[in-house]
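Q: Hi! First time doing this. I have a protein sequence and I read that you can turn it into a structure. Is that right? Here it is:
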Amino acid sequence: MKKNMGMCLAGMMGIALIFSGCKKNEKAAEPAKDDTKKEEAAITTVGPENGTKLEMWTFVELHSQFYASMLEEWNKLHPDKPITITFTTYPYGDMHNKLTMANQTEQGAPDLCDVEIGQFPNYLKGVIPFVEMNDYIAPYEKDIVKARLDIYSKDGKYYGIPTHVGATVMYYNDSLLKKYGIDYRTIKTWDDFEKAGLALKKASDGAVMMTSVDTGGTDWLWLSMAENRQDWTDGTGKADIRISGVSDMIKMQQKWLKEGIAMVSPGGHVDMEEGFANIGDEKIAAFPKAMWYMSRFLNYMPDMAGKIAIAPCPVYKAGQPRSVGIGGTGTVVSTQSKHQELAAEFVTWAKLSKEGTKKIWEVLGFDPCNTTLWTDPSVTQDKSNKYLQYFLTNPFDTLNEIKNEIGAVKVVEISPTISEQINLNVLVNCLEQGADADKELAAAQQNIDLEQQ
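A: Yes, that's right. Below is the predicted 3D structure, encoded as structure tokens:
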């Protein structure tokens, strides 16, 4: 189980990436700037002097800007109950540590707080320190992707308000594929995907590979589990990673590597600088990733505008669901708040209403949880929108096509341990060293079982 330092770093990055699609993307969505000095908290206060005073913590500055703009709209629409919010943006680890301490001591928690999806299960043990949000979500619930609400719930009660769907789609370099006579639109199954990869290898004399596979993240495995309607944890949080949805994907990727139609992602993941460079240099032609990855193209690969098509992911067999939601941030209302009702009303309106989710799309570039926007021409046909301008296909066309096929993989207490075992051991050993997938999964399961005892 000894690994060199590079493998460990790649693996640990993967542990973070599996849960932090939203977190990492939001940082990427900000204008380019020096992030090396982001150690001190940034504090801003927005709202009238006569507004009800609330405090909100987040770990992404762009979130504060989004909430601030929604707060201004709220105060215009609700002059009878104005709100003033002091926003504090902390470094990721600091914020979650402060929130944990405030919950444990039962003092000092903010009225509102963003909680990253991978951290959320830590707060659902014992007495839950967040306000139940079912009644506040109810006016919007019929229009919201249910799987996104469910990931911040326990025993049928919702405790967090989602930020995006995070629907996984396939990104195809259509310009590159066309150059070698390949039409991505004919790819419906993983068998089709493999055949296209072999044709691409032959036509390009091996200069271009169909895809890259990750050793530092589990997005491919989440997609495979969703397609097979599986999950590596059950309703009680018990984990078993020795399922077909996991092993089949690893074995299929091993075959691609042997055939020379796939490479291991540089840096261990497509969501790294090395990954961006590999895509931008047109070394690979396709890969699956959540829709929040759109911002990566605009920020890190601007020269690829007009080349990339977005489409549903291939499946093992026709009729299987073609997507899974990945990443996320759930916004909570603390039970310590003296203004729970007002805080809950504001945050559900800000993040789930048509106005709010439209702003999330425009400001953050995320696929909105409110599905009414998916067919709103003012959104889907907005020719001034930078995302609609960049991609060859309209992302909302794909969203509407897979609307009822977006699966979910539960994030529970044991999830970080699963990610550690998969990234540090299973994927590295299987994809870099060609180890037997079933044996590696069995060995990792033994370590997971020790944690579950």
